[in-house]
């Protein structure tokens, strides 16, 4: 690392960015079961099991509501075709609640496969590092004391922005895991609504929303892949310009690309929900 304070400040900011970027790349390949050693998932499984009893109780309630609202009289219930339809609905809803966690895990596995395919197709095995170009380093190190004063201001502001953006981005990815855990824990309650025809839309919306949360990972991967391509081609800087202009141009364009990436990560939920029609 250079002995110049300005260079060190920029390199530390980029190092923080690269660490968080690499962590995101790793997190997106992890399943909720293995995240943080699986300790969180074990708690979620316990909560899910405890709520299954409530789900079964609601199953009966929603089934009765469905029978009352869909059948004009008790005579209709005694018809074989109506009785069979009601029985099948009740049995399917019971199976969904009993094996709801397995269903969610299958959906997670499918989306993880989509994410892995995107990574493989992109040809990027790991997240690329954003490095300070040697031309920028030389321009900074060749500055005198007075010339370097405005550079301090530029690098302080730029370094602060880069550090803040890196933490915002990683928090968005962690937030996706939190949402997956909350959906998995509460699943028996909304899944019980499949027992009644008038209430089944709640269960359908729940599954669609859960799939949307999972697909956020695919959108985030796409954003990271695009940024990696940008990062592999550093901004073009006029070598004949002053050091302040070179650094400002480089840092400004770099922050702009990082803002676009961070914004894409933050908007992943909205993008997927528009695709899913939610």
Account of the 3D structure:
- This protein is an all-alpha fold and 278 residues long.
- It has one domain.
- 80% of the residues lie in helices and 0% in strands.
- It contains eleven helices and no strands.
- Helix 1 (5-27) packs parallel to helix 7.
- The longest helix has 42 residues, at 145-186.
Mean pLDDT: 78
* Rg measurement, Å: 26 Å
Terminus-to-terminus distance: 49 Å
**Structural class category:** mainly alpha
Broad shape = elongated
Number of domains: 1
Strand count, sense and barrel status of the largest sheet are:
none
How many strands?
0
Percentage of β-strand residues: under 5%
Structure annotation, total helices: 11
Spans of at least 5 consecutive residues with low confidence: none
The sequence of SSEs as H and E is HHHHHHHHHHH
